[in-house]
Design goal:
Blueprint lengths: L1 H11 L4 H16 L1 E2 L8 H14 L5 E2 H9 L1 H4 L9 H16 L7
Parallel strand pairs: 1-2
Helix pairs in contact: 3-6
Length: about 110
């Protein structure tokens, strides 16, 4: 994960002002959609997965504690978050589970 962050940081030096504004907008919109307790922010795989879904499929819902708890308790999600599960395969499985669980709440998924 450190390498991924380092690579992104290096790449970010070449971003235009427009790119930076888009990232700022995207992160702001994401943060505004989170109506969750602080305890859920320590679950990086959860927060990261929700962010990815918002960006990839334009998921427009407010995220609540109830939703986070449902995701964290799901055995399919849990199976992708153990030690050594940062592979792209596990990330894709995790995102699919989050998508399936949040889809029942979504009014607007594009």
């Amino acid at each position: 994960m450190k390498d991924l962050i380092d690579d992104f940081a290096e790449l970010s030096f070449s971003f235009s002002k427009g790119d930076l504004k888009e990232y700022q907008r995207s992160l702001g919109t994401f943060i505004d959609s989170l109506n969750i307790s602080k305890k859920y922010f320590k679950h990086i795989s959860l927060v990261e997965g929700i962010f990815v879904l918002r960006e990839k499929i334009n998921l427009k819902i407010e995220i609540t504690d109830e939703m986070c708890e449902m995701i964290l308790k799901d055995k399919r999600f849990q199976s992708t978050t153990g030690g050594g599960t940062i592979s792209i395969t596990n990330m894709n499985k995790r995102w699919k589970v989050i998508y399936e669980l949040l889809s029942e709440y979504a009014d607007s998924v594009e």
